[in-house]
């Protein structure tokens, strides 16, 4: 028995030595891995960084990131909307919406190239095939949206774009397999009803109302809905940067539009007209594109940090503000039906925001309100009796 114990102790000792060796080898392996600061490239170190206009938002907490992104979206896109309507107010420019999109894409490509040169990592991380799809969708949403202004009032075009939440939700279900609650569905219904009411009001008070504009902006809305989900999926899957996304999607889109205008003989008349009004066309288009580029950078940051649905909610609120400014700065027919339909869309926005913050926003239930009212009546009766 003593010999067995000795043998057991010897085996345990050997196992202990082996375990120590194994443990030490594991420690050795873990220690042998170089530190991040020694070997990791700037690309790897900044995978999770979100940089907008040279500002690294990853250094801030989530509420601060949200505040910065929302402020940027509102500031730049309000100026963007004003300049867009100002360009189309130039007499004779309305047929050249696709040419404005071509110029806009050209400026966006230049801005994206400049920004890409200012960052450390210049490698393209998202596949070229994905960018070809994103570029096609971008051409659809921006080209059709600009062209629709030749047929619709600007507020009507904007209110259509406010309801992008509806196809975004549909796209989220089919592209990313998302599921939405009753508040999201109610938000979509409110926006749909508000959109229909606003369109009916526009058709009655606007003498230049054209159903072609409704078709164009509806197609732009569908493309706009798909592109948000595709961008979100591509940026999260490949860790693509905002400047990369803007540069490749808009430069490829520029080639698409240039090819289309050349084949349809729409390039020469537009160039001739704009050469006669360079300041009102190219000058405004530069400022229009610059503010739009800054705005899209903040939108892409919202998509990457908070997702496509919340980004759409923020941009929808911005568009509601744009409608108000449009009526203030540009003369156009007005009816209070615009107000009621706009408020219905705003209700849809609130429901969407509430659905994303149900744990923080506690609305009283009908049963709770009834119970509280009954207790107040009971207390009042008792006090009167005493």
From TrEMBL:
GO terms for molecular function: 3'-phosphoadenosine 5'-phosphosulfate transmembrane transporter activity. It is found in: Membrane. InterPro entries: SCL35B1-4/HUT1. Keywords: Membrane, Transmembrane, Transmembrane helix, Transport. It is a multi-pass membrane protein. Belongs to the nucleotide-sugar transporter family. SLC35B subfamily. GO terms for cellular component: endoplasmic reticulum membrane; Golgi membrane. This is Adenosine 3'-phospho 5'-phosphosulfate transporter 2. The chain crosses the membrane at residues 66-84, 96-119, 131-152, 158-175, 182-200, 206-227, 247-270, 282-302, 309-331, 337-354.
């Amino acid at each position: 028995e003593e010999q067995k114990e000795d043998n057991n102790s010897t085996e345990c000792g050997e196992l202990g030595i082996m375990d120590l060796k194994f443990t030490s080898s594991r420690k050795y392996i873990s220690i042998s891995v170089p530190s991040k600061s020694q070997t990791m490239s700037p690309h790897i170190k900044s995978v999770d960084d979100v940089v907008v206009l040279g500002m690294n938002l990853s250094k801030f907490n989530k509420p601060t990131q949200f505040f910065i992104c929302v402020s940027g979206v509102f500031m730049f896109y309000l100026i963007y909307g004003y300049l867009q309507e100002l360009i189309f107010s130039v007499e004779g420019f309305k047929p050249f919406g696709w040419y404005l999109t071509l110029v806009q894409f050209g400026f966006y490509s230049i801005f994206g190239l400049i920004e890409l040169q200012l960052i450390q990592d210049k490698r393209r991380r998202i596949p070229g095939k994905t960018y070809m799809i994103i570029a096609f969708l971008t051409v659809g949403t921006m080209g059709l949206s600009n062209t629709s202004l030749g047929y619709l009032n600007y507020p009507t075009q904007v209110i259509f774009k406010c309801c992008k939440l509806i196809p975004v939700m549909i796209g989220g279900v089919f592209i990313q397999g998302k599921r939405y609650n009753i508040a999201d569905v109610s938000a979509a219904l409110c926006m749909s009803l508000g959109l229909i009411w606003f369109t009916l009001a526009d058709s009655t008070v606007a003498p230049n109302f054209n159903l072609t504009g409704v078709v164009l902006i509806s197609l732009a809305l569908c493309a706009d809905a798909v592109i948000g989900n595709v961008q979100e999926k591509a940026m999260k899957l490949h860790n693509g940067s905002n400047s990369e996304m803007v540069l490749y999607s808009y430069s490829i889109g520029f080639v698409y539009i240039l090819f289309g205008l050349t084949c349809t003989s729409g390039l020469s008349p537009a160039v001739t007209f704009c050469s006669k009004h360079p300041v009102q066309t190219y000058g405004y288009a530069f400022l229009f594109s610059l503010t739009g580029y800054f705005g899209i950078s903040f939108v892409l940051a919202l998509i990457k940090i908070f997702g496509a649905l919340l980004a759409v909610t923020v941009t929808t609120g911005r568009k509601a503000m744009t409608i108000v400014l449009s009526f203030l700065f540009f003369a156009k027919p007005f009816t209070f039906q615009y107000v009621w339909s706009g408020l219905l869309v705003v209700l849809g926005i609130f429901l969407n925001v509430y659905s994303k913050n149900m744990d923080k926003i506690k609305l009283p239930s009908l049963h709770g309100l009834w119970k509280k009212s009954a207790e107040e009546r009971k207390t009042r009766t008792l006090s009167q009796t005493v």
